[in-house]
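Record type: ASSEMBLY
Status: queued
Input:
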Amino acid sequence: MRVGNGRDRSLLLMNQKEEQKQMALIVQKYGGTSVANVDRIKNVAERVVARKRKGDKLVVVVSALAGTTDQLLKMANSISDRPSGREMDMLLATGEQASVALLAMAIHALGEKAISFTGPQVGIITDESHTKARIIDIGTSRIEKALKENNVVIVAGFQGGTVSGEITTLGRGGSDLTAVALAKAVNAELCEIYTDVEGIYTADPRIVPDAQKLDVISYDEILELASLGAKVMQSRSIEVGKKFNVPILVRSSLNNAQGTLITKENKKMEEVVVSGVALHEGEAKVTIFKVPDRPGTAAKIFKIIAEAGINVDMIIQNKTETNATDISFTVYKNELRRAIDAVEKAACEVGAKNVTCDENIAKVSIVGVGMKSHTGVAAKMFDVLAKNKINIDMISTSEIKISCVVEGDKGKDAMRVMHEAFGLGQGPKKRKKK
Amino acid sequence: MRVGNGRDRSLLLMNQKEEQKQMALIVQKYGGTSVANVDRIKNVAERVVARKRKGDKLVVVVSALAGTTDQLLKMANSISDRPSGREMDMLLATGEQASVALLAMAIHALGEKAISFTGPQVGIITDESHTKARIIDIGTSRIEKALKENNVVIVAGFQGGTVSGEITTLGRGGSDLTAVALAKAVNAELCEIYTDVEGIYTADPRIVPDAQKLDVISYDEILELASLGAKVMQSRSIEVGKKFNVPILVRSSLNNAQGTLITKENKKMEEVVVSGVALHEGEAKVTIFKVPDRPGTAAKIFKIIAEAGINVDMIIQNKTETNATDISFTVYKNELRRAIDAVEKAACEVGAKNVTCDENIAKVSIVGVGMKSHTGVAAKMFDVLAKNKINIDMISTSEIKISCVVEGDKGKDAMRVMHEAFGLGQGPKKRKKK
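Status: finished
Output:
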């Protein structure tokens, strides 16, 4: 029953005004868990349609249905130890192609126009590096035509095509990259990344229960957090967002929470010293003892390690005696075996004494653009760790982050005390949109 | 241990000669059951590699893994009652794309070069009729280049692309069509269709245990058999084979049996009167009683039925009284409900008396190019049926086939007595390659 339609009408007018103001070209990206099954696909379709009916023009990037890619990979691996990159791309690209078609059908079923495209169809041109191709150009005419015809444009994430007509994929996190690059290409106002978390948190809520969702974060901060072990988005897509200044909103596809906006840094952000704490437990420490202290020795060692394809993170050199030095560095645990082989070879070549490794380490990092304009942050971090009887093994810093390697079983504790010490857990959220 | 290498060498020379003679460009097609899982894909790869090592150049057309298409269809149907044809094609085309990539990997694993292509990639250009597109052109430059580079060329069956870059599919049996059309386009010596049966039989061996595999059959005969209920290949691909005179060899992917060659008719074939017996139990008979006998009445009735999209097979008109006639015809059982609706409307419009239907019918047919030059075949068929107390309800004939509709539960018996009467069950096979 309706009462007081005079007031209703004025509300309606207000809403219309607001909607007109909001009308925009938006790129949305839905990950594999958001389209894991028929019900979730329908849910995404409903969200998309509701948004379209508010007046926005939408380009929707979709990943493969959760599990599909793994299933295809499993088949490929049971057929060949080293499947060719070209054929892997041919195989894996089918996952996203299926999900865009299904989403288009679900949108049609709700009475709205939609059209799906593969990466090559829509003009996402990449280089020839199969399984990790780089986007070199994006054609927009087909998207623009379809938008003009009032379609929701659905684009298969993660894939592209070469100028010679080969199918390529963009590597891990490729669908995020598709979305951000498309947002730049079509000049969208916003790139929304839908996922199964509500946004970016001051710390991993599974470890730090009072972690707070951030309303806003800078590209540089999220890049540091991502490289430090916070799994939100792949770094490449954030780098592209930063390069072209594409605002990225990370939010959940399962509710209407506001999400976290990734944007360029502003003065307001610097008022907060630390915006997040990250923990990385996937590294191991390798030490080479008594490396002869001659120019070029370290270069020689890390050249051999690089040639073995090992990624090295932190490096510390500590001169212990007149003519020799100890060198420590961290590598990913899953590359440790290969790293040790390479390092032992290197140690032998340069005449070092011996090599040890320690898998029981954890890296705790604090990140914040406010560090640029605040002093004493590192001192406070070291002090808090000391007071909590957590020894620091290695330290590494950048303009906006400080990382400490600590004993492996102390990593989660270290994260929690950092989070508390820098006041990240106290609601209301420390940083608001300006 | 080798003994008598003089003789060995002469054998070797003979083999080489034979191989040189055999060297040819072959199109092979493997259906969904032939690539149902990883082991079967590996089996196909082994067959292909063995053939390549004999010196043949191979273009291999592959269907989707058995079950994949059904699974995709199920998802689509649970999302939409009437999914758009364009999006269905987008979805279903992924099935073949995955299987060509997997087969290429399996061939690589055996040490041979192979490259996979989607329909659009390889230049299979179709019209815009989604889900049942017709091939209008096939580019061959990419295939020829890949063959020249010593690749096994693997092509996704069932699919093509329009000139405007849309993905299309060719409808049921589309992979056979891809294979036959490609064989014509690249001027292959032979198109081999691999399936889960050993070839084409004189009758369905599940019903007629002593059915014999035919070594050779003409396009026209197989077309009649296909339309009469023998499920071997879709008619469209055989029609294309006939039009362009592409020899088609139907054989099993699970053993090395010789298979059945479908080729153009020759004198030798005519020596055999009947080459096969087919049974179709999927039809029902509809009768309209006392249709006023005026010119144009039948046309009116069948126009209404056609407009309802109902396929009509046999039609018989029997004048029962001066001014009225009874009209009977057969339709597919799965279209019977809709047919009755249309027929009752038509009967009402033309002033007929009433409509009945009979689902308990079966159609038995004998087929053979030899009928052209032999007399008394129909008489023999009717006589044998009568002797076996099988009543004939309707009769229809063409130049190379005679069909009789009999009581439904007598269909299999009718098939068996025909098979015996025309000597089809007596090994050795009645018809040899010339």
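Annotation: Chain A has 14 helices and 20 strands.
Annotation: The longest strand of chain A covers residues 283-292.
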